[in-house]
Design brief:
- It contains seven helices and nine strands, in the order E-H-E-E-E-H-H-E-H-E-E-H-E-H-E-H.
- The strands form two sheets. Strands 3-2-1-4-5-6-9 form a seven-stranded parallel sheet, with helices on both faces. The protein has a two-stranded parallel ribbon with strand order 7-8.
- Helix 3 packs parallel to helix 4.
């Protein structure tokens, strides 16, 4: 049996929740370490849940040791309350954890980003996602896999306005319009990320756009 240890941040969000559940069901992974600000009710023999302060990374970064880091943090401007707060979650926390993991010898990073991300984007969200992609690509990982999914269908995590958006996108997808941008269930994204985590890539950094994620 291959002994593989997964590290997960962003585990309390929709994608992260699905990632953790699927990792626990996956025979390839025998240990799953989650680092989060609050404890979840989830319990499993393979799971170790670490309650941490992302503003005090130095107090726990030595625990970031394993085979793969899954980074799935993210928020909205409305939920964060300010651009500074959103930047801290969408860039700073993920950047600093990834840097610590790389320094600890973790060989692989799988990052959830967003379609349209670019450090040169005039749009705040797309820009910080792009800045994070650029930063982790330069870190000392053997493999960096960056996922740029389209609008995510987050199931029970969806807010009412998001449900309306998904209904609209699904309607125009049936007409063959924006098919590659059809809403992607978070369970599917998590499954594809785990599938990629098994693979050896010929390139250090591999980026997957929506079309490529669907076809993996």
């Amino acid at each position: 049996m291959i002994t593989t240890t997964a590290l997960v941040i962003g585990a309390t969000g929709a994608t992260g929740t699905s990632l953790v559940k699927q990792l626990l069901e996956n025979e390839h992974y025998v240990l799953v370490h989650v680092f989060a600000r609050k404890k979840a009710s989830l319990s499993h023999p393979k799971l170790t849940w670490h309650v941490v302060d992302f503003n005090a990374l130095d107090t726990w970064k030595a625990q970031l040791k394993g085979d793969v880091l899954f980074s799935a943090m993210g928020t909205t401007l409305k939920l964060a309350g300010s651009k500074d707060a959103q930047f801290k979650i969408d860039f700073t926390y993920q950047h600093d954890v990834a840097k610590a993991a790389a320094e600890n010898g973790v060989p692989s990073l799988l990052l959830v980003s967003s379609t349209g991300s670019s450090s040169k984007s005039p749009f705040f969200y797309a820009k910080i996602k792009g800045q994070l992609e650029d930063a982790v690509s330069k870190m000392n990982f053997k493999q960096v896999h960056i996922f740029q999914p389209p609008f995510l269908d987050r199931g029970s995590f969806l807010r009412s306005n998001e449900k309306s958006g998904i209904k609209f996108l699904n309607m125009i997808n049936k007409l063959g319009v924006l098919r590659s941008q059809m809403p992607m269930p978070v369970d599917f994204l998590a499954k594809q990320m785990i599938r990629v985590s098994y693979r050896e890539s010929d390139a250090k950094v591999k980026t997957y756009n929506p079309k490529q994620i669907w076809k993996l």
